[in-house]
Amino acid sequence: MIEVYSNSKIYVMCPPQTATGGPELLHQLVYKLNLQGFDISMYYYPAMENPVHENYLKYNCRFVTSIEDNPSNVLIIPEALLFRAAEFKQIRKCIWWLSIDNLFKAPLAPRELKIFKKLGWETLYRYSVIMGKVKGKFTYHLAQSYYAVDYLKKRGIHAGYLSDYLNAAYLEESRKIATFDKVPKVLYNPKKGYEFTQKIMAALPEVEWVPLIGLKPVEVAALLRVAMLYIDFGEHPGKDRFPREAAIYRCCVITGKKGSSAYYEDVSIPDEYKIADKEVNIPEIARMIRACLSEYNTRVNDFDVYRDKIYQEEVRFEKDLNTVFLKV
């Protein structure tokens, strides 16, 4: 529970001119809390002249270029910018874990910690970050996924759950999808798990594979509208958007079991569609892909629960805000 006083100002740190799921969620938070009457602003780091990406102008978020560093105020920091937190001494700091894995890839890590990575001591690096830069350094923790909640709990850190919701335009457009317009295409994200995905592709040369890369949102939507299947055997550092977007566009979804994809609460699809990314499992994955393409009209119904949950995410988000932020 974050106590917000009558004179409190809330700041949300965010990278500028960045159009990905994380920054959109940060803008959604400011938008929703602004509607509720909170004094809340974006704080972009690093500073630049025009920091607001065009995709987020619709949220009409106020932004500031400096922070009043006093205990009445609250600074919300995504985990990727965690290492900037030490600059602020008095303000109450909240880290919002939009992912877990991305923290350990953050280029802003102090030099003394980067040495561990250079030496290949990844486990020691992660331990040092959590124990030296996270635990006991923040007043509050929030987590976008149950994967993050569980990861932190196992390390003695309590995090409240505050997730996200998909862009309203995606949700509205997805309701128009008709299954009879679908064709046997398989979509994948080549930025995630591509080495393993290539092995699956080699086992299924007859399948039409379409990479989701270098596309505008409307172009991604156009592919989701017609494809029967989306696969994702990469990292799932948080509750990722691509599987959800694919599901509401009535694609079947097959994932691995990394990160949040292992948690039903985050990726609410039947277990048979979650297969670990091991070479021994490639025949099983190939069989499931063929089944989704040849039995699409039946298989797509296996994702009804997931779709319904996604359509309710904005309502859940608003309820969770009322639990997390308390006016006193």
Structure description:
It is a single chain. The chain has 328 residues and is an alpha/beta fold. It has two domains: 2-164, Rossmann fold (3-Layer(aba) Sandwich); 168-311, Glycogen Phosphorylase B (Rossmann fold, 3-Layer(aba) Sandwich). The protein has helices at residues 21-35, 111-118, 122-134, 146-153, 168-174, 194-203, 217-226, 241-248, 282-294, 296-299, 304-311, 313-324, and strands at 2-4, 10-14, 40-44, 63-64, 74-78, 92-97, 140-143, 160-161, 183-188, 208-211, 227-232, 252-255, 325-327. The N and C termini lie close together (11 Å). 34% of the residues are buried. The mean pLDDT is 93.
Which features does this protein show?
328 residues; alpha/beta; Rossmann fold; 2 domains; seven-stranded parallel sheet; four-stranded parallel sheet; 35% helix
Quick summary of this structure?
Helix 2 (111-118) packs antiparallel against helix 3 (122-134). This protein folds into two domains: 2-164, Rossmann fold, CATH 3.40.50; 168-311, Glycogen Phosphorylase B (Rossmann fold, 3-Layer(aba) Sandwich), CATH 3.40.50. The chain has twelve helices and 13 strands.
